Amino acid sequence: MIRLEPAGAEALLLVLGEQAEADLPLRIAALAERIRRELGDLLIDLVPGWTSLLLHYDLLRTDHLRLAERLAPLLEAWLDEPAPSGGGRLHEIPVWYAGEDLAAVAQACGLSSAGLIELHSAGEYRVGAIGFAPGFAYLGELDERLVLPRRATPRTRVPAGSLAIAERQTAIYPQASPGGWHLLGLCPWRLFEARRTPPCPLALGDRVRFVPVDEATYRRELNA
Fold first, then answer.
1. pTM of structure
2. Where are the transmembrane segments (predicted)?
3. What string of H, E and C letters represents the secondary structure of 155-201?
4. Residue 99, domain extent
């Protein structure tokens, strides 16, 4: 059941599911595009999440009650629509699995380092949300054998390109930033560039596979 909840004076939260499902990010992406097309003149921004869509609206043009009325037929139609076909684009992203926490994570999960790399790189992950930092894509879900809580003490600086895991998700830090996830490796790709179109190659609903590479390949691609 969809819930509409005020989120401050200028935002409305659409709760579209109680838990993450395989096709929900794709469906939320399709809904966001329809709302942007139909009601874009009323909105400032749309922020998709794993199970929700946050609408920031222009108080000079609408309020949450009038916006909810305009949303009702769009949400009714969305509920009756199947998931978009195609399953999102597939990105095969190279990773040099030499992260600072690799050995400690393997030990905590009862695996060898090689076993951890094999298990993590065997998964296909869905982009469920983009946030925290520009281009930071939350990918899920991890194999249950790799599920760990976040670090008790976050790092003040995680290097750009770091591949990490926490709880049931994995991600790559697009920029150097603080972070509390466990670091497994390094990606040579630049996953956010403000002057590029689009700035982030990953979009909501896309799929990601990680391809293990050696240090020489990582450094070659990093400097390409």
1. 0.82
2. none
3. EEEECCCEEEEEECEEEECCCCEEECCEEEEECCCCCCCCCCCCCCC
4. 90-223
